[in-house]
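User: Hello! I'm new to structural biology and keep hearing that structure can be predicted from sequence alone. Could you demonstrate with ABC transporter domain-containing protein? Please show me the input and the output so I can see what each looks like.

Assistant: Of course. The first part below is the input, the amino acid sequence of ABC transporter domain-containing protein. The second part is the output, the predicted structure written as tokens.
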Amino acid sequence: MEPVSRRTRQPSTLELLLGNRSSDSGVTELVGVALLWLGGSVVLLRKSSLFAVLFTSQRSGSQWLSAALRYPFLVLLHCLSISVTGCLQRRVATKWRQNITRKLHRFYFQKQNFYRLQSESKEHVITDADLRICRDVHEMAHATSEVAVSLIEALIKTWVFSGFTVLQKKWLGGFLPPAVFLLAVKIVLGTHPEDAKNVQASLQHFEGRLKQHFSRLQSRSESILMMQGEAFELDLLQKTLRDLSTIARKLFDLMFPLEMTEWMFLHSTQAASLLELVAFAAVLAYMTPPFGESFEQKAFVVGQHLRNVQNFFNVCSAWNAFLSSRTLLMTSTAATNRVKQLYVKLEGLEAPVAKPKPKRKHMPKLEPPETFTDEGELVSFKSVTIHTPSKQALLRDLSFCLSHSAPLLVCGQASSGKTALARCLFGLWPISNGQVSRPGGSERHIEGIPFPEDLLYVPETPLLGWASTLSDEVTFPRPMAAGLPHEELYKWLAYVGLEHLAKDTELTSLSLREKQALGFARILFHRPHFAILDECTSAMGPELERHFLRLLRELGIGYITIARRPSQSLKNEHSRLLMIQGARGEDTRGWKLSELSEVTMKPRCRCSAEAFQRLDSYLECRHSDSEEIEPATSSSTLSRSRPKARETVELRWRSAPARLWATLQLGLLTSGRRRTILQKAGLILLLLHARTKLYWRFCQNLSGSLQALLSRDLAAVAKQLLFGALVALGSGFADQVLRYQAKLATLELWSGAVSHLQRKLMRELTLLRVEEEVSEPMQRLAEIRSIFESLGSNGCEALLATAQLVFVAPFLVRSLGTWSFLFLGHFLVLRLLQRSELREDLQFQAQHKRLRAQAEASALCCRGIAEQQKLSEQFEMLMSTGMEMRGLDFLHQLAITALTDFRQVPSWVLRFLSLKFSSPFSETLEAAELLSETVLFDRMMQAAFIATQQLAKCAEKVGRLDSQCLRCLELVVAVEVASRKPLPLQISDHTAGDVFQFAKEGLVSEDGVRLARKLRFELAVNQPLLICGPKGFSKPLLQLLLGVDTERSSTRLPLETMVLVMQEPYVPAYCRLLAQLAYPLLLRLPSHGPFMVHVTVPEKISESQLRRHFAQLGAAHCQTVESGRDGKEVQKGFRKVLIHFSTFEETIKAVARPQDRIIDEIELQCEIAVEKTASPGEAVPQLGRMRECLHAVGLDHILTREADGWFARRSWPELLTREEQQRLGLARVLYHRPTFCILEEATCCLPATQEAELHKLLLRFNVTPLALASQPFLETLYRRQLHLGLAKGNGWKLIETAE
């Protein structure tokens, strides 16, 4: 029965955040935050009052000096409260992250759940658990703590400042700030466009599609280039880029009103804000007591006014911070939901299995038999039925008994259920019925996985790098605390030909053959009852494979070998053969057991000394017999002198600004884009000038209204405020149009740069050559967007700040003289205080990612507990670092707060500058005029300070881009180097009788293993050839066959001659179904009228029937023609009819679903009428031929199940099964109908009986197959066989058998 989850709903966020102990809940820190905000608010009140005293007592030297000396003390207290609050918030976020991660880890590592998450059915599988634990949990905890702290701040500041105003019996001032802010928020939210969510979702969809395309190009670059799909991929990339740019522009247009309203109502005092105007007017409304004509009385009024405006904005800024944090929380909702989904899934995996109830009360309750039993040195399956996690039955009633002296060979097609035996044997997959016997039974295990001394699993690529020393690698997965003695370690390695590793201080990168040899060294060391060898000899030749298996038999180690095909060399080393057909088997069981010849197996070895004696004796016998064994190490490695792209970039662009400018120039390579960017730049400069002028006019209106108030001219006050509102509207509009144009310019630059690099990379073989120069070229291409987005936003802010400084610079020099250089010093100090932030959790994320990538092998090797300990140690160290309040870091944060927050040190310095400014005019100007000029001066100085701070921040952010610019320019340099290499030669055409001869002096595998010397063979039409070799032989051989050598000029065969089908066919996502079938050709469809469809109909169907049938689809008229679209004569008994349509949509609707075009139970043959093009790589779709190919390979259902038929766009890699993808690859061959096709294990997922039929089908379509496989198969069809990687002679042998 199904496991029953203990939870029927998702846990709340609070349930996940809180820990088991009260000290872990973060409540203490939040109480501390509340107390600090309370103290900080009181300090702010005192600071604003002291600020008013500083303004009022400008002519009273002693009083001003006393206030000026007390002000820094309040600044220090306020900065301390802010810094300590930041530290407490970080502690809260760290504790909450710690609580969530511990809860997830507790379930994640129990019973190998890190593997079970990935083995679920496609609808319920979670493949990104590492990202959810490392990234989403961090984002969730940070956003929630930000909301909690900002809410506390908003509530306390509202209470303190409003209460202070109410205590002064100014009731309006007490409730007006939060009311005005909430009204402003309501106005802003009212301008939110209704379609914004849909457009945003579309933008995210296309962004994800582009990233997915980049990722697939990165991982499948070799396949794409060998299939000559560069032009197809470039076309798909360019279309996605255009769609993405169009939707981004649409989103910019939709969000313009919202952003403009938000800027005018909610932005800081750096803009002409209506909220500031309302605050100014509100304070004036309740600050109108009678005052005298003296300077001191008027100064007191102005000081009180400025104090109340500051208090007003303190409340509004607190609520604005809460609104911003709430927006952050909303953006992290997706991450929170993913974390909750993972938690529920993990908790469900731990739920107990519901046991069936007895049907009658009087029946005794029977305990179910144990699934795993121990019958000694035996492995047996008794009537076992194996189901996949999606509940599909693979094997039924599987029964066999295996002793250690009778090795078992398990063979079958891919996905048939071979590895499912190991999963059930190790308890990873539940067994619905039946019983399994294994050494140790259900008693000796770790989290359900047997001890390595009982059963040891060795995958095709053994796990390496999990241990710290070479000794730990050999003793993996149960390393010894003290490690192996050097002599013993050397012996175990020498038995498998890896003695050279014992001389190295560090474990170097190994070839696949060396990794597999190290896997056998682990088996020899542990000497288990049984070893499960899951294709772990695929990179070895027959002689080395036979040698290693005999080493196991010398020590009495039983083994079960899993392979794809039963070669004769493997049969000779096993006593039984278990053929697996899985759910596609001919019978209902899906398996067949047969006996092979007996093999000699010695008794099981009990100690290391006995093992050494047996192995030494065995090796001496082999040497005395002069039996040749191929080495396990790589006999030849490829050494290439590659230029270092980083050094080239640093020599060519020596400074960060030069690299930044070079990156920008990538978007300006075409004259059209240069002209567009120049136009936008000119418009931005005009708007910048207008925005700056309007802003200062707004400031003059504020000071003018204050002067009118002091002059008791209420009409002038109203006039100034009304005019200020109009100026604020104009300034806001200019500001937002400027930012809108900056976004469009950034988008234009990004699309230009990416489009240029895409065209360069998608040239013939360029991408492969670029990968030899730099790593992750497509990832670097995806990073360009973040570079341009950051440059656009920071450049816009830097322009605005520079405009402010340029505007006030003459006034500063005239008013302050040499004191104006204070702003330059302020900028330099801020730059000195800035430093880069280090990511301390990269190692934790990398370890999680590695575990996820090797989940199955880790689970089968019993690495769950060890990995949990390692990850827990890393995580706890990371959390302790996050909760520490280090002295230097705290002082640095304190200094940053004091200098970057205008309310701190800058406001204190401003009072000195203001005093210096007003002193020369104190005797010549009237009180009202002097005070208004002083207020305007304060505003100008405030703008200058804030602009300086913004420039420093922008410089820091742009400086952080240097590393990304370096990566981008490395890609540019690599593309240039790759473009200078010779392109492959193209063969124009071949006749059907051509015989192709291939020669290679030395064929070397990817791992540097010599496969063949002086290789010579030929391909002939209608003479199928099978090429066999060890793992890794296919890539160099395909480079030879297809002419895609990246180092030298070669001959690249056209599609008419050679087509490649790989084991994992490349299936582009989100392209039309007909494009999938024609890949890699680009299909030409009509882009403008006339729109026509050619229909082939029998003579018995009248024209009126045709007219009625197609009239429902929008056909204009029908016309009988003499010949078809291709100019050929019409078959006797049929005629060609040309159907005219008005639009392209009507045309594709007429041909999309051929099963719907039926008249009198006869399916019409419809083809799109398109003028033929001479463009290379393009073709006109032949729908009839496509339908024939799908039917031939058994894929008709893909077409008929789609509502859009041939024109359906889907995420095909996720929609199609592996078997359907391989059939699609064969359908492509039938559609192109080349002379030859290369099948690189291209039918390994198909049932064995159908596999032979499909290979013969190719010959019936006049396509000669060339199959690449690790073991021989279909020997009646492939009578010519070429074997590579042999130990004798030149390493290759061509075998031809007569029919």
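User: So the tokens describe the shape?

Assistant: Right, they're a compact way of writing down the 3D structure. Reading them back into a model, for example: Confidence is low (pLDDT under 50) at residues 1-7, 353-368, 635-642, 985-992.
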